[in-house]
User: Fold this.
Amino acid sequence: MKRLLAAALFCAATSASAHDFWLAPAAFQMDAPGATRVDFSIGHASEVEPWNLQWSRVYSLRTYTAEGVADHQRSIIPKTPLAPGFARVALEAAGTHVVAFESRDSFSELEAERFNAYAEKEGLVAVLSARENAGTTDESGRETYSRRAKALVQVGDVVTDNVLEPIGQTLEIVPLRHPYALGDDRALPVRVLFRGEPLQGALIDLTDLASGDGPPQSRRTDAAGVATFEVPEAGAFKLNVIWGVSTPASDRAEFDTIFCSLTFGMRP
Assistant:
């Protein structure tokens, strides 16, 4: 019985934190301009499923290129009982395209043990500190949460440096070197921005999307909001970071949390 109870508690804590969200294009590398399918995925490691893509959850879907910004909400096909939701995004020029998505806010409430386990696993140090200072560690946790995701799709052979600039997401991962033009050391430094400022102490992971196996590379951002990863020469990868802050002016939730990702992939 004790083993069953322990297993149940573990599963509850794990399910509470299974919130990674990312954009999964049919191809990260395209030989020529055209349309590509983009799936909206959620999960952890090998436990991946389609996100429940509904219009009520969509705030924006855009592409950013060296030439400018384009809206792609018209390309969204919401989930139905028979098929997962996805988008068919037209990429009409050569270069590196940033496909970017933002969701609307949702609400979650978890009992204390599950919420604390989720906050600790995801590295939400500001949330844990606020609960401890307020003496609410033994109370349920209430949060609003939303999602930000970017995918880098390369069209043709010429990489463009627009991917090195922030696009203005509230929580954002910005490469400091182009992932498709790394040197022999394969080092990829990235900066995490929160409300436009470098975010120190955030836990950011690099995961192999193709296999989902093995532990991710995990780093804490430094005072400049920077963390550096070693990226293999081939494969598809996800950078993921989560951050939450107190919302003292809200009667609905104690915290506002954002789930953020950046995906990219190289040919074999």
Observations:
- The longest strand covers residues 141-155.
- The chain is about 15% helix and 45% strand.
- The longest helix spans residues 2-17.
